[in-house]
Every structure is written in C-alpha cells, then in structure tokens.
Amino acid sequence: MVVKNIDLLSLQTAQMQQDPTTKAICAALNSKFQELGEEVKTCLIYSRIDYLSEDILDELAYQMHADWYDMSANIDIKKNLIKNALKVHRYRGTPYAVEQVVQDYFGDGTIEEWFEYGGNPYMFRVVTTNTSVTSELANQFTMAVNSVKNMRSHLEQIIIDISGKIDSYFASVIQICDEITIEQEV
User: Fold this and answer.
1) Which of 143, 144, 102, 97 is nearest to 126 (CA)?
2) CB neighbours (10 Å) of residue 93?
3) Which ranges of the chain would DSSP assign to H, the alpha helix?
4) Considering only CA atoms, which of 92, 94, 158 is closest in space to residue 125?
5) What is residue 120's DSSP assignment?
6) What is the C-alpha to C-alpha distance for residues 126 and 21, in angstroms, rounded to an integer?
7) What is the Cα–Cα distance from 133 to 128, expressed in whole angstroms?
8) Which InterPro entries match (predicted)?
9) 70 vs 31: CA distance, rounded Å
10) Do the beta carbons of residue 144 and residue 101 sit within 8 Å?
11) Looking at the DSSP assignment, which residues form a beta bridge with residue 123?
12) Could you tell me the maximum CA-CA distance found in the chain, to the nearest angstrom?
C-alpha cells in the first residue's frame, strides 16, 4: 500500500462502506493522508543523501558535528563525508578515521605511518592513485585530516601514485665455450 495513493474507504468492510458517516470521514481524511505521504519523503533524510541539495547537506554536516566537512567541496565529496560521518566520529583519532576521510575525498587511498616507510616518528603520508587531485582538493583534504587525526601525528606528504602497465621484453644470451687454437707446423 502506498500512503500517497491511499483510499481509506476501500479499507473498510462492505457494511462500513455503505455508512454515510464513514464515507464522509474517509473522504476528508484521504486528502490529508495523501499530503502526509508526500511529506514522509522529507523525513527520510539519511536514506536519501544522494538526492539532497547542497544546502541540506551543509546543514546535516553542521548537525552531525562533522568538523572535517568543507562547504566548498564538490557535492559528491560532501555526500561521502555525510554518509561516513558517524563512522569517522566513532573512530576519530585513529588511522582508520583518517583513511576513511582519505577515501571520502580522493575515492581511494591509504595511509602509511612513519614506521612503514622509514620516516620521522609520528609522521604519516597519504598515498592515492586518484590523478584528478588538485592543490585545492589537497588543501581541503589537509584541513579535514587535521581535524580527525590524533594530536601527536602529522601529515608529511600526499603522494599521487601514477603507474602504468607496460609490456617489456628482455632477452639475454650467455655463451660459454672453450677456445681451441690449432696451428699447423711446417
């Protein structure tokens, strides 16, 4: 049953459908239920994040206390940030929260902590394969990371890993032989 297409009279028993009072009440309430059916959509905010306007997304970020949210970011990034806001809040201050923000901004990427790549203590770097990263997006991302990372760690660099697959063919030959010289004596 769809609420916006509801007909209350059809839900009544055959005897009640003949009652004039029931007919009047159902006719009066049908329009109200149909209006309510349209209004229900606006209540379902979290499940409709992909269809919300930027203004509503900005308001949601404020209500969710998403400090890493940037109002000037792309709408797709905003949607990802809102969808994962509760998860980031739960793990805030951990590498997982930073990695989630990396994925929200760049679409893919990982973090490498200082002991994994031989860097200075308490430093980390972000590695992504997203080639569309601009300096503006990197600045937005840096501000976002600073609000979800733990206080002792510092972002050292953002690495954009651009690699391709090239077919290379190598060949080598090793020749081992003995040299024998035969001379004729006359």
Assistant:
1) 102
2) 13
3) 14-17, 20-43, 54-63, 75-83, 85-90, 95-106, 114-117, 135-148
4) 158
5) S
6) 70
7) 9
8) Tail_protein_I (IPR006521)
9) 42
10) yes
11) 154
12) 141
Q: In this structure, what DSSP letter does residue 13 have? A: -
Q: Could you tell me if 54 and 75 are in contact, meaning their C-beta atoms sit under 8 angstroms apart? A: yes
Question: Can you tell me whether residue 49 is helix, strand or coil?
Answer: helix
If we measure between CA atoms, which residue out of 71, 44, 73 comes closest to residue 59? 71
Type of residue at 84: N
* 5 residue type, one letter: N
Say how many residues make up the chain.
186
What is the pLDDT, as a whole number, of residue 4? Answer: 65
Global confidence as pTM = 0.64
CA-to-CA distance for 87 and 124, rounded, in angstroms? 21
Over residues 69-100, the pLDDT tens digits come to 888 888 999 999 999 999 999 999 999 999 99
The residues spanned by each domain of the chain are: 3-43, 46-160
Position of tokens 């400090």? 67
Where residue 117 falls (left for φ over 0; alpha for ψ -120 to 50; beta otherwise) is alpha
Per-residue model confidence as pLDDT tens digits over 134-144: 788 888 888 88
Amino acid at the residue 140: Q
